[in-house]
Structures are given as structure tokens and as C-alpha cells.
Write a structure and sequence with these properties.
119 residues
Amino acid sequence: IRGDTAAVAAALQRGAAIESLDTRRSPNGRRALNWAAWYNQPVVIRFLVARGARVNSANYTGFTALHHAAENGSLDAARVLVSLGADRTALNQFGQRPVDVAREREHPEVAALLDSLPP
């Protein structure tokens, strides 16, 4: 959330599971990668993926990190996630792709980015 890779590294070293779902703040669950996407932390996203975070893991409602970046308008995070192989066609439980979420939440910059990429 804060973009502190040293704190993330320390948590991982103490045994934090990189793919665990945090349900304390969201009952739908968010992994560290989802939180980094939501808070537009591209450095943390790269850090987590380099250490084994799966870029296309979904939470209980099918939201991937790219869905969360789109939901919150996190443009830098969306760019990095796409460059790391995020699936732009992944559907959440509501049948929405990340671009659909960006449009619904009125984040035209993220929608334009996702629309501009080749299929």
C-alpha cells in the first residue's frame, strides 16, 4: 500500500505468503499484488512479480490486479501489469474485463490504455 519494498521483503522473509488473500479490509480478498495495483505502486508490482506473485491471480469475485488497477484508475500500475503479462480479457464474476471496470468507474485513461493495446 505504501510502496515500501523493504517492508514487503521483510514480510516475505518472515514467511508471508505472497499469494495469500487479505480479507481484513475487503471481504472479497486482495493479494499484495492487488493492493499494489489499487494504490498505483508499479515498483512494488515489479518487486512482487519478480518474487513469484502471479499476475493473473483472482480474488473471490474474479478481480485480478489489473481489474483493481482499472477500478481505482491506477494508470501506472495498469501499464506495468500489462507489460508483465496481465490478461486484459480476464472476466470477473460480473462478466467484466478490466477495461469494462475502468469505464464503469469512469477512468478513461486506463480504458484508453487497455483499448489501445493489440488483442
